[in-house]
Each structure stands twice: as C-alpha cells, then as structure tokens.
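Weekly modeling sync, notes
Attendees: S.R. (lead), two postdocs, one rotation student

Agenda item 3: backlog of single-chain predictions. S.R. asked that every request posted to the team notebook include the full sequence so nobody has to chase files. The rotation student volunteered to paste the first one in as an example of the format we agreed on. Action items at the bottom.

Example entry:
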Amino acid sequence: MEKSSQIGAPHPDPSQLRRWTIIDLLRRYGTDAAAVGHAFSSAHGLQTSDLQALVAIMSAEGQGAPLSPKDLRHIIGLSSGGTSYVIDRLETAGHILRERSGDDRRVVHLRFTEHGMATGLAFFGPLGARTEEVIDQFDDDELDIVVRFLTGAAASMREHLDHLLSLGHH
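Predicted structure, as returned to the notebook:
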C-alpha cells in the first residue's frame, strides 16, 4: 500500500482509505477500552487480570455457559495458581462466587454476585447507554453485518493473543 505524505495515513485510494480507517478506529477503540478498564480497576483496587476475569465470567454467564476455574485459566492465560489467586481476590471483594454444579458437585462454576453486578453497572452503565444509542442508529440488516465483522475481528484478536501466550508472552 502506497503511503501519502501524512504519517500513517494510506494513499487516498477510497478502498485502501476505508480499510485504514477501520483498522485505525479499532486501534483507538482498543486503546480507549483499555483506559476505561484501567480506570475501573483503579477505582476498585483491581488488577488487570482481575478485570479480564470479570469480563470473561460476565460474558460466559450472558451466553448461558458459566466458566469453571479451568476455563477461566485458559481465557486469561495465567497458571493454575495465578488463576486461583485472581478468583480468591474477586471472591473476597464480593464480585464473584464459586457455585457447585447441581449435576456434578465436583464441578465448580464462577458466577457474578449481585454486588459484583451492581458495581459493574454503576461504572459501565453510562457506557452501555451510549452504546445502545449508537446501536439504535442501525437497522437489523446493518447490525447483522456489524456482528459478522466484530465476530471475525474478535476471533482474529483472540487467535493472535493465544499465539502470543503460547510463546510465553503474558
């Protein structure tokens, strides 16, 4: 791709410019999301891995598939001991609880507590409302395309992260 004289900006070919804009917006979104996550963590005395764990637990619960500690370990890329320490901190803070499965008492699932949910909603609720306002600007067909794109982008990011973790980058 040929570059223009503006640093980082592509040649003004409309197709290339659109691609560059998408990638740039994803970078900026990722950077801003990390800053918001850091602000939440800082406000609640959490570490980065704590927030990663909370997001993973919330996402899994939202999909109706609660995580086990082993599942969480694979998602956040920590050792068993490191993951146990994160779970202990979050449980002590009242954000999550360990719940034994009704089918097999040996299986433990990680769940949000009402306190954990209230804490998250108090901080992230305004962002959720702003995001809903943006979503409301699109019709169902457009949203299907957005979902398809974000699904691919999230899978690409996860694949890259898994690769980095496999190389020992934590």
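Discussion: group reviewed the output briefly. The domain at 42-125 is CATH 1.10.10.10 (Arc Repressor Mutant, subunit A).
Action items: rotation student to repeat for the remaining queue; S.R. to check formatting next week.
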